[in-house]
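I have been asked to look over a protein record a colleague put together. Alongside the sequence sits a line of tokens, each denoting a local backbone shape. Please read both lines and tell me whether the tokens look consistent with the sequence. Take the sequence as given and treat only the tokens as open to question. I have pasted the whole thing underneath without changing anything:
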Amino acid sequence: MLKLLQSRGLGWALAVGVGGAVLLALMARGLLGHTPHYDELLHVLSARGLLESGAPAIADGLYQRAPAFTRAVAWSLALFGDSLVAARLPALLAGAALALLLGVWLTIRVGVLAGATGALLLCAVPVSVAMAVFARFYTPHALFVTLMLIAFFEALEPGRRWSLRLVFVALGVIMLLAARHLQATTLIAFGAGMAGVLAVLVHDRWDALRPVVRRHPLLVGLLLVAAGGVLLLVVARLGLLERLGDTALWAEKHAGRYQYYLTAFRSELPLLWPLLPLATVVALAHGRQRRLAIFAVVVFGVVLATHSVAAQKAMRYVYYVIPWLCVLWACAMAAALDYATRGAASDPGRPSAGVSWVVVVLLGATLVLSVEGTRVLNLAAGRLAAISDLPYRNEPDWAPAQSLLSAHAGAADRIVTSNSMKAVYYLGRYDLELNATIVPETEERAEFGRDLRTGSRVISRPESISQVLTQPGTTLVVLEEPKIGSASGVPVESFGVIEANCSELELPAGTRLRAWWCAPGL
């Protein structure tokens, strides 16, 4: 059995990878029909536009970000019908492919235990399931970034033919371009990958470099400082520092929280995250997988540090580096197993293989009973009621109020809403979006600026909503409760204008929506 856990055969690699992909699909199946989110409707609606007119149109605008992913959503809608579940299948497929890739690669490179650890841990991180049921480009981006980094690492393998090295480098570059098409943060991943490559090269050549460092420590230090200075200069000249400092209004509260991701990972992985430093030491201390552990540590560390400094923060932004957290744990588990088995074979005083298996079983039971383990089991079994923090559970749901709102929308001269995407999806139209976050994203970056994605105007200030409500005709206002009173959504003063001039409609309970009918002189 111990030989099986250390096996690197292709058959076992495929079994482990497929097992990870199936597990993620099982965990995601009960969440595929969740209430839609603003961001994913950008792709759903523009995919409809592609199917109807050949252009990624939403109302009177165009959504042109990550067009390849929008086209994938359109293909899914054409194949499986126009539904949210169909729109989310490309993301789920990419997430399953990522679990498959990680399980297969880690098994071939390290062993069955490592492959199973990596694939299982990837599924256990809550953000993995959340992104797999989200019609957005995060899972394909993570897949392309992981392929890119694997290719760069494999190009460093000692004794490999130069022709094969070039093939891996070419694959890495292709994946770099594919990932960059989806996300600008690919530049951070590429920089982290290059830092990982450099760290592995230093490790491989340390015997030759050590005497130089010992003889000329000051010169080496100055060269490192100079290299860091050049890197900072390049980053500054490319405008990357400014981009790291940019943030949307909704994310401003976390802009200066440099510990944000440390806290977020602790919430996502309450058992495994605090133990990560220990796992890292174990992985780095083991010679057989030290090169891979060094690469994973550097990649994960650089990405996490960069995003911690960046102003705009959310777990989905660092999802692409989570596979390398899984790689670290995979290396640590393989190292612990190797230590136990080699120790038992070489030293009669060491624990026997049987005792080692008792330890493995106890560790397995600990994981199963942990928060991470119970979440995986509950999701895989479809016991959603047992999970208190399901993704998108608190998203305002327009569906129960759709018929009532549609009736008023048909009679209204204009519609004002805090969520333009849901208004288009459920009501078929809107005229103005009342949302402070979107104002700086408009063409004019000002009140009544045009949102190029839909062609409609955006407002946020009380004088703006007052101007709209005093126009001739009637206005239907639909606001989501989480945005009411928020400086990044519907500011208190603007909400006060609506309450003072409009009559509130009664909506079904639990929607987290409020609506008003407004007419001059009401």
About this structure: The chain has two domains: 2-386, 399-518. Residues 2-386 form one domain. The longest helix spans residues 84-109. The chain has a mean pLDDT of 90.
